[in-house]
C-alpha cells in the first residue's frame, strides 16, 4: 500500500481543502430555528420553576431544603448541559479524495471466550467496505480453523500469544485486556504500516459506507481520533437488558457526542473507534484500564490532538444478553472510570485546556454523581417518615404545576430528535419502560464498582476484567443475589410506611415511598418474567432454580399491597392538599373504645368532590 505523507499538526493531507470547513452544523436552517426556540421555551420553564421554588417561604429547614434543592438542581443541570451541546452539534464533511494514498487498516479484536462465528460476520463486513484498506484480526489465541479462514479471505492475523512482554499485570501492554492485545498489533504492524486504523469489537458489524464516514474527519490534520455511535441493537428483540441500555444512551451516541465535536472532546467508545497512528504513537499508545476508550480520548486531548464524532458511521453490535451481563458491565465500567479518575487523570489534567479539564472531570464523575442522586433520593423518603419532617414548604399540586412544564418541553425536544433521526439508533423511543427502569437497575451496582475502585486505590490490587459473553457463549443465569439490592431498597421505602402510623408532617411521603417501592417491585418482576421468557424457561419445571426469586417477588408484592391498604388513602389526602376547591379524599374522626371517653382517631376515605374549605384537619 503506498505511503501517505505525514502532515502532522502543521500541514494538511494531500488534496485537502486548507480552508475547510471540516465540520458543519448537524441541523438544517429550519431545524436550528426549531431547536433554538425549543431551548428558549425550556429556559423559560426552568426560570418559572426556580423563581417559584427559591421563594423564602419554601425554605423550612436550611440543610433539608438545600439537599432537596441540590437534587432538583442536578436534574436541571443535566437538561441544560444536554441542550447546550445539542445546539452546537456538528457532523464531519469533506471530499475523501483528500485522503487518497492514506494507508488504512481495519482491525477487530477477539478474546478466547468469543466464538469465531461472530467474527465471520464482522470480518466479512470489514472486507466489503468500499475504501482501500487492509483487514486484520487481533486474536489472543487463534485456532487453526480461524487461521485457515483468514488466509482464505485475505485477512491478516496479529497475536501476542507467547509474548510475556505483552502480558504485563498493569498498563501498558496489560494481560487479559483489549489494550494489551491491540498494543501488540500497533507495535508490530500498525504504527509503521498504516496512517489510520479503525478498530472494532468482535460483534460490531460495520454497515455499508462505515469506513468512509470514519475516515472523513481525518481530513482535518488536527484530528487524532474519531468516535462513532455504539449501537448494541443486534439482540435488542431478544433481550430487555440490551434495550434498556440502548434506549438510555441513544441521545449520548447521537447529538451529545456530535456537540462535543465542536471544540470539545468526543469520547471514544470501545466497541469501535479510529485513530491516526502518528497521534497514538505520540501519546504512548492506547490508554489504561478496561475503559481504555475513555482514557485514550483523554490522552489524545492532553497530547494536543482533537477528536470528532462520526455520527453517521454505523456499526451494529450486541448488547448484554441478560440481566447478569448488564450488571457486570455497569460494575466494571463504573469501577474503571473511577479508577481512571483517581489514578491517571491527575497527571494529565495540566496538559488539558480548562474547558476539557471540566469535561473529563465531569464525565469521569458521572457514575458517582448519579449514584449520589439515586441514593439520596431513596434516603430522603425513609428519613422524612422516620423523623416526621418535611423538606420544603410546598404542596405537591403546586410543585407539579411548576415542575411539569420543564419536563414537558424537554420531552417535546426528545420527540423532535426522534422525528429528525438524530438518536443513535435513530428510531429510539422517547419513553419506554426499559429506559425508565434502567437508572434504578444501574445505581446499586455502579455504587459497588465505585467502592471497589476506592478500595483498589487505597490498598492496591489487581483487577481482572470479565469479557461480556456474546453469541453462543452467553449463558442464561440469574443468581438471586443480583436481586437482593432491590429488595433492600424497596424495603427501606416500604418498611417505614407499614411501621410508622403516627406520621403527620411528612404524611405525604407515604405515597411517594409507596411509589418508590412499587418501582423496585416492578423491576424485580420484570427481571424474573423476562429472564424466563427470553430463555424459554417454564417456572413450573424450574421451581427449584427460581423458587427463591419468586419468594422475593411475593414478599415485595405483599409489602407493597399491605402498604397501599394501610396508608394509601391517608397519603393521598396530604399529597392533594393545595388542589384548590377540589378534593379526592376526606378525613373523618372516629371514636375508638366504649362510651364517650374513647380516643378520637382520624380515618381517611376516598371522597371526590368540590370543597372551598381547604384547611388541613
From TrEMBL:
Q: What's in the GO CC field?
A: plasma membrane
Q: What InterPro entries does the entry give? A: Glyco_trans_2-like, Glycosyltr_2/OpgH_subfam, Nucleotide-diphossugar_trans
Which part of the chain is the Glycosyltransferase 2-like domain?
Answer: 196-387
From the UniProt record, which GO molecular function terms apply?
A: hexosyltransferase activity
- Report the transmembrane regions from the record: 35-54, 60-87, 358-387, 399-417, 483-503, 509-529, 550-566
Membrane topology listed for this record: Multi-pass membrane protein
- Record's keyword terms, sorted: Glycosyltransferase, Membrane, Transferase, Transmembrane, Transmembrane helix
Report the locations given in the UniProt record. Membrane
Q: Extract the PANTHER family matched here.
A: CELLULOSE SYNTHASE CATALYTIC SUBUNIT A [UDP-FORMING]
Its protein name is Cellulose synthase (UDP-forming)
> Which species expresses this protein natively?
Rhodovulum kholense
Amino acid at each position: 500500500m503506498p505511503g501517505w505523507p505525514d502532515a502532522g499538526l502543521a500541514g494538511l493531507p494531500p488534496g485537502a481543502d486548507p480552508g475547510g470547513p471540516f465540520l458543519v452544523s448537524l441541523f438544517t436552517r429550519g431545524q436550528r430555528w426549531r431547536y433554538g426556540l425549543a431551548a428558549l421555551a425550556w429556559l423559560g420553564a426552568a426560570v418559572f420553576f426556580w423563581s417559584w421554588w427559591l421563594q423564602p417561604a419554601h425554605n423550612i429547614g436550611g440543610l433539608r431544603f438545600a439537599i432537596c434543592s441540590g437534587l432538583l438542581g442536578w436534574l436541571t443541570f443535566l437538561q441544560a448541559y444536554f441542550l447546550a451541546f445539542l445546539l452546537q452539534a456538528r457532523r464531519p464533511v469533506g471530499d475523501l479524495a483528500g485522503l487518497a494514498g492514506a494507508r488504512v487498516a481495519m482491525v477487530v479484536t477477539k478474546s478466547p471466550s468469543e466464538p469465531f462465528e461472530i467474527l465471520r460476520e464482522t470480518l466479512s463486513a470489514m472486507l466489503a467496505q468500499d475504501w482501500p484498506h487492509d483487514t486484520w484480526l487481533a486474536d489472543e489465541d487463534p485456532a487453526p480453523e480461524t487461521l485457515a479462514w483468514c488466509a482464505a479471505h485475505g485477512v491478516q492475523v496479529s497475536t501476542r500469544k507467547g509474548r510475556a512482554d505483552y502480558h504485563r499485570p498493569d498498563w501498558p501492554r496489560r494481560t487479559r485486556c483489549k489494550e494489551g492485545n491491540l498494543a501488540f498489533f500497533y507495535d508490530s504492524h500498525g504504527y509503521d504500516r498504516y496512517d489510520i486504523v479503525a478498530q472494532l469489537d468482535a460483534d460490531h458489524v460495520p454497515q455499508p459506507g462505515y469506513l468512509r464516514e470514519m475516515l472523513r474527519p481525518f481530513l482535518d490534520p488536527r484530528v487524532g481520533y474519531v468516535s462513532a455511535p455504539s449501537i448494541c441493537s443486534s439482540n435488542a428483540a431478544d433481550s430487555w437488558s440490551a434495550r434498556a441500555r440502548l434506549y438510555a444512551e441513544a441521545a449520548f451516541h447521537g447529538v451529545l457526542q456530535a456537540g462535543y465535536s465542536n471544540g470539545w472532546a468526543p469520547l471514544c467508545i470501545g466497541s469501535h473507534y479510529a485513530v491516526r497512528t502518528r497521534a497514538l504513537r505520540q501519546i504512548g499508545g492506547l490508554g489504561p484500564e478496561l475503559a481504555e476508550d475513555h482514557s485514550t480520548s483523554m490522552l489524545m486531548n492532553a497530547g494536543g490532538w482533537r477528536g470528532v464524532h462520526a455520527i453517521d458511521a454505523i456499526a451494529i453490535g450486541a448488547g448484554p444478553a441478560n440481566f447478569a451481563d448488564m450488571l457486570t458491565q455497569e460494575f466494571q465500567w463504573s469501577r474503571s472510570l473511577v479508577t481512571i479518575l483517581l489514578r491517571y487523570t491527575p497527571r494529565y489534567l495540566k496538559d488539558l485546556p480548562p474547558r476539557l479539564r471540566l469535561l473529563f472531570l465531569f464525565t469521569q464523575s458521572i457514575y458517582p454523581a448519579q449514584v449520589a442522586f439515586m441514593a439520596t433520593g431513596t434516603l430522603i423518603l425513609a428519613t422524612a417518615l422516620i423523623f416526621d419532617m418535611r423538606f420544603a414548604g410546598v404542596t405537591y399540586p403546586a410543585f407539579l404545576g411548576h415542575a411539569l412544564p420543564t419536563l414537558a418541553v424537554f420531552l417535546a425536544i426528545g420527540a423532535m430528535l426522534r422525528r429528525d433521526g438524530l438518536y443513535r439508533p435513530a428510531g429510539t423511543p422517547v419513553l419506554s419502560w426499559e429506559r425508565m427502569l434502567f437508572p434504578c437497575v444501574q445505581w446499586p451496582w455502579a455504587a459497588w464498582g465505585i467502592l471497589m475502585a476506592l478500595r483498589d486505590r487505597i490498598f492496591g490490587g489487581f483487577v481482572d476484567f470479565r469479557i461480556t459473553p456474546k453469541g453462543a457463549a452467553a449463558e442464561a443465569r440469574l443468581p438471586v443475589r443480583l436481586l437482593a439490592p432491590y429488595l433492600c431498597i424497596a424495603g427501606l421505602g416500604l418498611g417505614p410506611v407499614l411501621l410508622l402510623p403516627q406520621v403527620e408532617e411528612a404524611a405525604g411521603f407515604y405515597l411517594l415511598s409507596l411509589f418508590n417501592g412499587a418501582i423496585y417491585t416492578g423491576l424485580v418482576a420484570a427481571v424474573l418474567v423476562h429472564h424466563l421468557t427470553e430463555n424459554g424457561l417454564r417456572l413450573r419445571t424450574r421451581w427449584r432454580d427460581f423458587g427463591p426469586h419468586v419468594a422475593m417477588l411475593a414478599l415485595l408484592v405483599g409489602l407493597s399491597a399491605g402498604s397501599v391498604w394501610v396508608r394509601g388513602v391517608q397519603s393521598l389526602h396530604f399529597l392533594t392538599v393545595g388542589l384548590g376547591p377540589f378534593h379526592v379524599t376526606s378525613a373523618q374522626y372516629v371514636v375508638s373504645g366504649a362510651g364517650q371517653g374513647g380516643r378520637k382517631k382520624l380515618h381517611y376515605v376516598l371522597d371526590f368532590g368540590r370543597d372551598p374549605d381547604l384547611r388541613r384537619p
